[in-house]
TrEMBL record:
Signal peptide start and end residues: 1-21
Basic and acidic residues bias: start-end ranges: 239-250
Record-linked PROSITE patterns: PROKAR_LIPOPROTEIN
Region (Disordered): 24-110, 173-196, 229-250
Protein's name according to its UniProt entry: Lipoprotein
Low complexity: compositionally biased ranges: 37-68
């Protein structure tokens, strides 16, 4: 089956799992360390991670479900991205970028659950242990930029986990990664300026302190990162303490 048809089929399956509004819809730069890749071997013929039967859904059921990815791997491979020009950015009223929900609905890490928080995202160093290396994400970023039609300087865009690693997002599922263009106020050539990172840090703090549940935070950030805090009543939350073993936006 041609790659375009295979991706279309996967996107259709993912769409049935997540309902994201047309106006709604972490951040990880591709400058990350190789920790977690463990001598990862690139595979240009790699395919997007298949949808899992498990998913992240609100307690008690709900209309929105986020597909679960394959989770952390001992060796990561380069994942196929949507065909060039098939994804479209959306923007909020304040011009903050949002991903295309058909291409980037998000995907969760099945190893991270409400019961495993202390040994996963609330443990220092967890995200650095599972993060793919730049030998993988660099090539994925280039291909995903073509998917979204991003034409700006690559150094100013962030290859971002929609549901960040520190919120239990899947490390390398193509459905959870997108080239995020700069936010308003960006200075050309200065590298990414991503206020989404602060939102993620506050959500992590709230999860680890018991102020909100993991699934609720994942749902909110996947729907629209700009409204996630207000949706959960966490606008006054302080960011999580800096993890010395993690990178900004993890």
């Amino acid at each position: 089956m041609p790659n375009a048809q295979r991706w279309a089929a996967l996107a259709a399956a993912a769409t049935t799992l997540i309902a994201v509004t047309a106006t709604g819809c972490s951040s990880d730069s591709d400058s990350g360390k190789d920790a977690g890749s463990k001598a990862a071997k690139a595979s240009p013929s790699g395919t997007p991670s298949p949808s899992s039967s498990s998913s992240s859904s609100p307690p008690g059921g709900g209309a929105v479900a986020i597909p679960a990815g394959p989770g952390p791997q001992g060796s990561y491979t380069v994942q196929n991205q949507p065909p060039p020009g098939t994804c479209s950015y959306r923007y909020t009223a304040t011009k903050e970028p949002l991903p295309d929900p058909k291409c980037t609905p998000g995907a969760t890490n099945p190893k991270v659950t409400q019961a495993t928080l202390k040994t996963t995202i609330c443990r220092s160093g967890y995200t650095s242990d599972i993060r793919p290396g730049t030998n993988i994400t660099g090539r994925e970023k280039t291909a995903n930029a073509a998917s979204y039609g991003y034409k700006g300087p690559m150094k100013d865009a962030e290859y971002d986990h929609l549901i960040s690693l520190q919120l239990g997002g899947d490390p390398n599922d193509a459905r959870n990664l997108w080239v995020q263009p700069p936010s308003p106020g960006h200075k050309a050539g200065a590298g990414p300026n991503n206020p989404k990172d602060v939102v993620e840090s506050k959500l992590k703090a709230a999860i680890c302190s018991g102020k909100t549940e993991l699934v609720k935070a994942q749902q909110a950030i996947a729907k629209d990162w700009t409204t996630a805090l207000s949706t959960l009543g966490l606008t006054n939350e302080k960011p999580a303490a800096k993890d010395p073993k993690a990178e900004d936006g993890e």
